[in-house]
Amino acid sequence: AMAAERALAMATCTAPVNIAVIKYWGKRDTDLILPINSSLSVTLHQDQLKTTTTAAASRDFTEDRLWLNGKEADVGHPRVQACLREVRRLARKRRGGSEDTAALSLSYKIHIASENNFPTAAGLASSAAGYACLVSALARLYGVEEELSEVARQGSGSACRSMFGGFVQWQRGERPDGTDSLALQVAPETHWPELRVLVLVVSGEKKPVGSTAGMQTSVETSPLLKHRAEVVVPERLAQMMRHIRERDFEGFGQLAMRDSNQFHATCLDTFPPIFYLTDLSRHIIALAHRYNAHHGHTKVAYTFDAGPNAVIFTLADTVAEFVEVVRRSFPPATNGDQFVRGLPVGSAALSQELVAAVVTEPVPGAVQYILHTKPGPGPQLVDDPSQHLLGADGLP
Ligand code: DP6
Questions:
Q1: Exposed e or buried b for every residue in 237-250, given b needs 16+ CB within 10 A?
Q2: Phi and psi at residue 10, to the nearest 5°
Q3: Diphosphomevalonate decarboxylase-like N-terminal domain spans which residues (predicted)?
Q4: What is the per-residue pLDDT for 2?
Q5: Closest Cα to atom 3, ligand 1: which residue?
Q6: Each residue's pLDDT tens digit, 76-87
Q7: Which residues contact 332 (CB under 8 A, 6 or more apart)?
Q8: Which of 135, 267, 339, 361 has the maximum number of C-beta atoms within 10 A of its C-beta?
């Protein structure tokens, strides 16, 4: 047969959001995205939060193009280019220079379309899912099956953890070239079936300092961050792995809260200081502590990233009651029927004692809605061609 390079090839993948319980904050190498400390996260289920990305290559494409949520975006973005370059490098290495005519030409231009199944405006960490998905779709397109978290890391640090499901560690690594700075699965999503996640999407906050810029200022100015990376995190990482292995919610929840708090303390220790926690965040923190104190143990644990949304870890048997506590504390303004989204939540009647002890000064409308989800799997290949985000013409 004649050498027949495929004229158009397309691959679609989905990838999850992850939420760190031992936070990543600070790079030792800003080009390769190498962190100053290891981190650990829980991958969230894609039924509630996911990115879908289609990557296509064709000899008929005249330029590389990118669409994000239906709008054309800059394909020349250095982090997008880094992912593209690294996946192509792996593809080339894999082919070992041999002229595999069945393989897709690496010289074809590519089109990429990506979208989220959640509103970008909600400020839910979308860059991790976005880059994990980009790298997964490109790898599939070029037939690359190597370790890919190292590539996703170069899109966004936290993206490397979205390359696996369940409980995931990003080990900082030691090498200057970053080849040992990768993600490893600590336990699969099936490991802790009772674990649940409530994302409290808060209303109308302006965009704060981005993590990339914020963490660099912290590295340059915060002595607390240096201490955290050198002393605190190594101990906490080992403890957190144990709590997860033993499904010890008391230990897991307490440490997640402490680590979130210390991350925000390093932000305050940054000069000039960075504030991600708001009055509402502090209100939610106090609510969680009152709720746990009322029950005499850790039933819910909060964590906050570089934005105003709160993420609550809890166990299935606590969801209905705590959701009711949140509803009473932040009575929905308008969308009362859509206040709880995602996995079903049962109804719960709160005792007088609980309300009196926990629900103080309600703040109407402060929480827009609650998304109920749980740990989930890593990136998935989408087999059904009707699910591609690009048509046969290579356009969205
Ligand atoms: C607070 O991964 O968004 O969410 O590597 O510069 O892209 P870049 O930063 P990014 O930082 C995430 C910071 C965090 C904590 C975490 O997810 O571990």
A1: beebbebbeeeebe
A2: -145, 140
A3: 15-183
A4: 43
A5: 211
A6: 999 999 999 999
A7: 339, 364, 365, 367, 369
A8: 135
278 lines ligand 1 (CB under 6 A): no
Compute the distance between CA of residue 217 and CA of residue 173 in angstroms, rounded to an integer. 22
For residue 223, the CA-to-ligand 1 centroid distance in Å is: 19
Q: How far apart are CA 87 and CA 385, in angstroms?
A: 23
Residue 118 near residue 49, CB atoms below 8 Å: yes
pLDDT tens track for 44-95:
999 999 999 999 999 999 999 999 999 999 999 999 999 999 999 999 998 8
The CATH number that domain 8-189+380-387 falls under is 3.30.230.10
Q: Enumerate the domain spans of the chain.
A: 8-189+380-387, 195-373
CATH architecture of 195-373: 2-Layer Sandwich (3.30)
- Look up the pTM and report it: 0.96
Structure tokens at 10: 């397309």
Contacts of 256 (CB under 8 A, 6+ apart): 21, 240, 301, 302, 303, 313
Secondary structure of residue 165 in the 3-state scheme:
coil
d(C-alpha 394, C-alpha 61), whole Å? 8
Q: 375: which DSSP letter?
A: B
- For strands 34-35 and 39-43, give the pairing: unpaired
Residue 145 has pLDDT above 60, yes or no: yes
Condensed to tens digits (0 to 9), the pLDDT of residues 171-195 reads 999 999 999 999 999 999 999 999 9
Between β-strands 8-16 and 71-73, what pairing exists: parallel, antiparallel or unpaired? unpaired
105 close to ligand 1 (CB < 6 Angstrom): no
Tokens of 314: 């809890």
